[in-house]
Design brief:
Blueprint: H1 2-5, H2 9-25, H3 27-37, H4 40-63, H5 74-105, H6 111-136, H7 141-162, H8 175-180, E1 198-199, E2 218-219, E3 241-244, E4 247-250, H9 251-256, H10 263-267, H11 278-282, H12 284-316, H13 324-360, H14 367-384, H15 391-417, H16 422-429, H17 433-450, H18 466-478, H19 494-536
Antiparallel strand pairs: 1-2, 3-4
Helix pairs in contact: 2-5, 2-17, 3-5, 3-16, 4-5, 4-7, 5-6, 5-7, 6-7, 6-13, 6-15, 12-13, 12-15, 12-17, 12-19, 13-15, 14-15, 14-19, 15-16, 17-19
Length: 537
């Protein structure tokens, strides 16, 4: 498309980013709708947006450039950007409806793996569609866009009839689920009505300044429940059972199941987290997750949007026999590597986080460190690769980490901020990739455009033979300008990779901090719960 429509690398990044912006800016809107109205509205919108977006891109591609014009007009370029935005918005509508229904259907012990399995399809789609295209319609971009339009839009219609949340049985519900069915009362950010009981420890005033004021209160079981169940049954003070929303709770059983060091499990029926709206944006926990997701997803977006240019630069490096078809095959290998490992990462992190929590009492937030390290390692590998045959290693590791990011963060978001406004909160959190994603991708495009094929300003090192220098010059001279704009290998883009190495390393540090904060708050919640139980006894 870039070659046919005369689009620069920077403009291609803008088109690609428009799709990502469509994903992230619609998150809060889709989230609020699905939280309150269910998934069907989103699936209808997704069908229209996906079909219209990809078919619009196909129309612009087929129309091409008028005779004697070398680049796309401003109006046509704006239309291309809009179509890309619609595809992102539609894709996110389908994803949000599926993830929300999954989270509400399965218990907390299984949410990591079930959510990961559903989201894994989002990572596998690139491999699926690129394989179909290269197998049956090689080199036919118009047909590829048509397949994308039909292949992404019509499953939304199937989802309209089949996707719906299935309520959990009472014995399977977590505090998030119990609270979800309660009508909203009280101030924004909580559901504690005027008669709810708010427990404060005597040493609350001495707590660290960095504790998030919106998540520190511990709300007892009566908070936000129906009026007829708000008053405690004082005549059963010594009973091992308590009433919660009209049913009996086995306190001894709750004590046995409180070991898990996840924020949601630590609070069980005593704390009902429901942070949203203005309280969410004031939460330091939210900004911490927002920063981690921005850095990691921004790195992934930059790499994914530009791995084709990276593979072209490496394939053309010191290669006097440049073959566009072979170059396209190497590009396809990168796409497949990222897509397959993206899918694997989403499933694998779900298994790891569930196993760590259920078996070893390790909070899911601890897995943020593992995910951040994976992304950082991928960028270190990418900076050291100087042969096209080795680029798949960096692509695979990047896909693994990037997929894990978008599988783990929704579950952590649910645990930290609650189920009632889960999709809306995740929508706000998933806006974070727009910051680093836009910055890193445009920086990459600018860096690549700056290094367009020219004679290097510095002389070749003495260790380079005359034959090697002639081969490199011949290779650059023989390259079709529409296909490759930089043939100096890693030199074309490595400065951008150095930026993402620093960003992912910083994300590792933030992830360590997030785990430490989570463990501290879990201990505080468990301590407060014990105080409450002693009062009940």
């Amino acid at each position: 498309m870039g070659a046919k429509l005369g689009i620069t690398h920077t403009q291609l990044n803008i088109v690609a980013l428009a799709g990502n912006v469509g994903v992230y800016t619609t998150g809060p809107v889709w989230g609020r709708i699905v939280d309150s109205r269910g998934p069907r509205i989103l699936l209808c919108c997704a069908f229209v947006f996906l079909l219209g977006g990809y078919m619009g891109m196909r129309y612009l591609y087929d129309a091409g450039l008028p005779e004697g014009v070398n680049h796309l007009s401003v109006l046509s370029f704006a239309a291309l950007v809009l179509c890309s935005y619609l595809t992102g918005a539609g894709g996110n509508g389908g994803l949000t409806s599926s993830v929300n229904s999954t989270a509400r259907t399965f218990p907390d012990q299984m949410r990591g793996i079930t959510t990961g399995l559903v989201i894994s399809g989002f990572g596998l789609s690139a491999f699926l569609f690129s394989t179909i295209s290269h197998t049956f319609f090689p080199g036919n971009t118009s047909t590829f866009l048509f397949i994308l339009a039909v292949g992404t839009a019509f499953p939304m219609i199937l989802g309209f009839f089949f996707i719906r949340p299935i309520p959990l049985p009472p014995h399977k519900k977590t505090p998030h689920d119990e609270y979800d069915a309660v009508p909203e009362e009280g101030a924004e950010g909580t559901r504690d009505g005027p008669e709810s009981a708010l427990l404060h420890d005597e040493d609350d005033a001495e707590e660290d300044d960095d504790e998030d004021p919106s998540t520190s209160p511990v709300y007892v079981a009566e908070a936000g429940v129906a009026p007829e169940h708000r008053r405690r049954e004082r005549d059963v003070e010594m009973s091992p059972q308590l009433r919660f929303e009209g049913r009996e709770l086995d306190v001894d059983h709750d004590r046995r199941t409180d070991r898990s060091l996840s924020r949601g499990a630590a609070i069980t029926h005593d704390t009902l987290p429901n942070v949203y709206g203005l309280k969410l944006w004031k939460s330091s926990d939210f900004h911490l997750l927002f920063s981690i997701l921005s850095l990691l997803s921004g790195t992934g977006l930059m790499y994914i949007n530009n791995v084709g240019s990276m593979s072209q630069a490496l394939y053309a490096f010191n290669n006097p026999h440049y073959d566009p078809k072979k170059a396209a095959q190497w590009q396809s290998i990168q796409v497949s590597s990222i897509s397959l490992m993206n899918c694997a990462g989403r499933i694998l992190i779900g298994v790891i986080s569930d196993f760590a929590k259920n078996r070893f009492d390790i909070p899911r937030s601890y897995c943020l460190v593992l995910v951040s390290l994976t992304c950082c390692i991928s960028q270190v590998i990418a900076a050291r690769v100087d042969r096209i045959a080795d680029l798949w290693v960096a692509s695979s590791v990047l896909g693994l980490g990037y997929g894990a990011v978008f599988s783990l963060l929704p579950t952590v978001c649910l645990e930290w901020f609650g189920m009632p406004h889960f999709s809306e909160n995740w929508g706000y959190l998933s806006m974070s990739p727009m910051i680093a994603g836009n910055l890193f991708s445009i920086l990459f495009g600018w860096n690549l455009d700056k290094n367009e094929d020219k004679m290097p300003k510095h002389s070749a090192p003495a260790a380079v033979s005359l034959g090697s220098a002639v081969s490199a010059i011949t290779a650059r001279a023989s390259l079709p300008s529409a296909e490759v704009r930089c043939s100096r290998g890693p030199e074309c883009y490595v400065d951008s990779i150095y930026v993402t190495i620093a960003a992912t390393f910083f994300a590792v540090g933030l992830s360590v901090w997030a785990g430490m904060r989570d463990r501290k708050k879990i201990k505080m919640a468990l301590g407060r719960r014990e105080v409450l139980r002693r009062e009940q006894d």
